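Example for tutorial group B:
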């Protein structure tokens, strides 16, 4: 029992240190709480020793303790968790925006891994991997039964290491086998192109350390390609799960001249924070349409909410995911880190995003089936132990409510909510099937015609 008692003593000492500071009037209540804490920690020690001694197979002490810690955190809400050293390193790689791998953007279809697009000048691109290819085997082992994340982890690895992939390609008589050498990959978190010769399209796939700089380069390039003919920008945040808060703030700031971007409210009032925009609009007042859907979460909702509240952009699509909580990553020296929910997000008008999401200004469905689907897409409010929305909006100065969307007569009415019957299903490898994007680009063109030259929309 020596191990148990040392563990309990160390933890209880930490608790004692934590409660030593506080109002004198709370001393009796704290003493009672401290005694209960000791009893509960002794319970943990007893269970730990019993499992360690009598489980059917030998177990690792580290695994048992890490599982206990993770259970404590995941029991709080869906987004708090323990990151062991490997997971913590993986998270740092994702936020840094580079890793060892093959250079392909993928999704899952029919149990296989489907290539959305190879990244230019990467091992996959140079080997001739094409959009629409299905990856069926990795190093000779079928990918069926693997989650998308598990398959991605197998394709990643140290620069210079090799992997054998088997592809099934439409029109090919037999599977294609390729041996690829991994390299340092910098994912294209920002993709952009011209839609026609007058509308710029920018897609943000996540918010890592490269996102805002990539957005600036994209807008500058699009303005150059359009040659003075740019009527507006589409900012696509669909299925963007979020990422770094500071990048979301900077992206929103890129389009705003002034005012609040987002605020957070924590357990203690003094920990509340607020971020404000600085002068400067990279789009120079051009109309912006932001695309969102049920996969737009967290940082994506911060950007969409800020631009909507300031009427700097028209938000189009379907309601976002509703992840309005802040996770702080707290490193534990030599032991990984904990990801702990510490606050809630609020938009400039004081709306809490948590479990509600961002409602689009104009609803447009990606497919007709969405209008009659009996099983809606899962959102934050459906997750087990999701934080509640506290109901009322955050206290804001008078006049902070969202101004009404004012568009020229007939512009919003020309937007079609549903694709035509028989329209092809959306395929991310085929932009011509993207009905929501089609409606966004047409909205910008109609807006330009209705307003005439030199005027700003959605203000």
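The residue assignment follows.
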């Amino acid at each position: 029992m020596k191990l148990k008692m040392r563990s309990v003593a160390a933890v209880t000492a930490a608790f004692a240190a934590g409660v030593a500071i506080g109002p004198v009037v709370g001393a009796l209540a704290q003493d009672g709480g401290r005694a209960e804490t000791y009893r509960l920690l002794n319970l943990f020690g007893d269970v730990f020793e019993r499992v360690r001694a009598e489980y059917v197979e030998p177990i690792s002490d580290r695994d048992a303790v890490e599982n206990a810690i993770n259970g404590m955190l995941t029991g709080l809400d869906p987004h708090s968790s323990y990151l062991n050293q490997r997971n913590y390193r993986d998270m740092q790689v994702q936020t840094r925006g580079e890793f060892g791998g093959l250079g392909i953007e993928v999704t899952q279809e029919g149990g296989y891994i489907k290539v959305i697009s190879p990244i230019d000048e990467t091992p996959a691109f140079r080997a001739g991997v094409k959009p629409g290819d299905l990856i069926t085997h990795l190093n000779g082992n079928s990918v069926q039964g693997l989650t998308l994340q598990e398959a991605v982890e197998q394709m990643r690895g140290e620069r210079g290491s090799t992997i054998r992939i088997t592809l099934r390609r439409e029109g090919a008589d037999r599977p294609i086998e390729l041996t690829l050498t991994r390299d340092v990959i910098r994912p294209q978190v920002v993709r952009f192109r011209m839609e026609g010769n007058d509308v710029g399209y920018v897609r943000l796939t996540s918010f890592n350390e490269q996102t805002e700089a990539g957005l600036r380069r994209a807008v500058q390039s699009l303005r150059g390609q359009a040659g003075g003919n740019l009527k507006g920008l589409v900012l696509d945040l669909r299925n963007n799960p979020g990422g770094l808060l500071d990048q979301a703030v900077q992206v929103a700031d890129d389009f705003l001249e002034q005012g609040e971007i987002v605020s957070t409210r924590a357990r203690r009032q003094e920990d509340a924070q607020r971020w404000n925009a600085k002068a400067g609009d990279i789009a120079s007042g051009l109309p912006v349409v932001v695309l969102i859907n049920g996969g737009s979460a967290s940082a994506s909702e911060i950007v969409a909410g800020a631009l909507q509240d300031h009427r700097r952009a028209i938000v189009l699509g379907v309601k976002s995911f509703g992840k309005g909580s802040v996770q702080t990553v707290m490193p534990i020296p030599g032991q990984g880190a904990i990801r702990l929910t510490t606050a809630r997000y609020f938009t400039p008008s004081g709306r809490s995003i948590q479990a509600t999401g961002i409602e689009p200004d104009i609803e447009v469905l990606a497919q007709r089936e969405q209008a009659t689907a009996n099983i809606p897409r899962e959102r934050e409010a459906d997750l087990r132990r999701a934080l509640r929305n506290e109901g009322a909006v955050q206290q804001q100065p008078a006049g902070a409510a969202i101004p009404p969307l004012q568009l020229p007569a007939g512009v919003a009415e020309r937007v079609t909510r549903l694709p035509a019957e028989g329209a092809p299903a959306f395929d991310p490898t085929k932009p011509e099937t993207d009905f929501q994007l089609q409606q966004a680009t047409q909205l910008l063109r109609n807006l330009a015609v209705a307003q005439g030259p030199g005027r700003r929309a959605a203000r």
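Confidence is low (pLDDT under 50) at residues 1-28, 392-399, 455-459. Compare this with the pattern of hydrophobic and polar residues in the output above.
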